[in-house]
Amino acid sequence: MSHRLQVLIPPGLDSRIRKAAARSKVSKGAWVRRAIERALETPDQAAGDPLARLASLNAPTADIEQMLAEIEAGRR
Length: 76
Known about the structure:
Blueprint: H1 11-24, H2 28-41, H3 44-48, H4 50-56, H5 64-75
């Protein structure tokens, strides 16, 4: 069973959704449902929290002084 959800959006966003739906050859409702599904598939923590996103990169880290020294050494 489906449920109705009413969301108020500004005219500019409505226009963008209408054009995107037309490009995809689907109704606005179908396009919005797909967009919501894609958004929900994204891990909330990494998507909403920039620090969590950075942590998820597993990039090398070090003390700031050590990092600056390595950068400077690489310039020589």
